[in-house]
Write a structure and sequence with these properties.
The protein is of the alpha+beta class. It is built from 3 helices and 10 strands, in the order ααβββαβββββββ.
Length: about 325
């Protein structure tokens, strides 16, 4: 009996639990459906609002188009466009063209004025006259004349005239000379005081212009050249020396006169540069071998400084010439 009552109690409990849970489940499902319905209604409201916005936009577009069209019409009206008047103008132009064709007026083409350019004038020079100003500081007037024989070869001849003393432009050159003479009393060279150097000479050159075959503006006698040269000078040197006189048994003043012959040969390399179209500047360097001999002496001079006028040996040379073209 006790067992039956326990079983009955259990069955009643299970039934109550099931009924309660069923009631709760039903309640929850109804709430969820209500929430879903609210969401759907909200979405529907949003769609309706969007639809209203689109409709308003569609309604406003035609109004804007009408306003634009009205503005364009107003601008066209302000142009005062008259098609009939334009057609009349075209007809007038066509009639004038037709009349010109019938009259046949010759067409006169303007003759263009051609401005002739002055041809660049290049004079062909055949000769030049040059002065060596450096030689003036040695007491020598050096004047040369050059004449073209071919397009690139010329011959030059120079005249030398010398007169130097302790005064004037040649004083530095003169004071640096060492004058010596062969004394008959001592049979040796004695130093004496020089008074003057005078003389004359000639220089011959054959100039070959090295750039004459190239296309340059400068033609011979202008441009780079090489030239062998020969020179001869005859010089008189005078001075005073104290010499012992055996007959008078005293030192007496003696006048010294020496005649000097100078020969030299060498090669120079130079260039002639035009200045102001007719003037030229000649710059040259080179080397020479010079032989000097006094009259009455058997051999060439020896042991002389290279800047002495009676030097014998090899020495460099350089100079500058200024001249005119002819």
């Amino acid at each position: 009996m006790k067992t039956k009552s326990v079983l009955l109690t259990s069955i009643v409990s299970i039934f109550l639990i099931a009924a309660f849970s069923t009631k709760n489940f039903a309640q929850e499902s109804i709430d969820q459906k209500a929430k879903m319905l609210d969401l759907k209604l909200q979405l529907l409201d949003s769609k309706l609002e969007l639809l209203d916005s689109k409709i308003k936009i569609w309604e406003s577009k035609p109004a804007e188009l009408d306003i634009r069209l009205d503005e364009i019409d107003d601008k066209i009206k302000t142009l005062n466009f008259d098609p009939a008047g334009i057609n009349l103008k075209f007809l007038e132009v066509e009639s004038m063209i037709q009349e010109l064709k019938e009259v046949k007026i010759p067409v006169i083409m303007p003759v263009p004025v051609i401005q002739e350019q002055e041809p660049e004038f290049h004079m062909d020079y055949k000769s030049s006259i040059m002065l060596n100003p450096v030689s003036l500081f040695e007491g020598t007037f050096h004047l040369s004349y050059e004449r073209l024989l071919t397009d690139k070869f010329s011959v030059s001849i120079s005249a030398l005239a010398t007169y130097a003393t302790e005064q004037g432009m040649a004083q530095y050159f003169f004071k640096n000379q060492r004058f010596e003479y062969l004394s008959s009393f001592s049979n040796s060279y004695e130093i004496y005081q020089g008074e003057s150097i005078a003389g004359a000479g000639i220089v011959l050159q054959g100039k070959n212009y090295l750039m004459a075959n190239f296309k340059t503006k400068n033609k011979a006698p202008l441009g780079l050249y090489a030239a062998p040269q020969l020179m001869y000078r005859r010089v008189w040197i005078t001075g005073e020396a104290m010499e012992y006189d055996i007959d008078e048994d005293a030192w007496v003043e003696k006048e010294i006169k020496q005649q000097l012959n100078i020969c030299s040969a060498g090669v120079i390399l130079g260039t002639k540069i035009p200045v102001l179209k007719v003037l030229i500047v000649d710059i040259f360097v080179g080397g020479n071998i010079r032989l000097s001999k006094y009259d009455g002496e058997s051999g060439l001079t020896k042991y002389k400084k290279w800047y002495n006028i009676d030097f014998s040996g090899v020495f460099p040379t350089a100079g500058i010439g200024i001249g005119i073209l002819k």
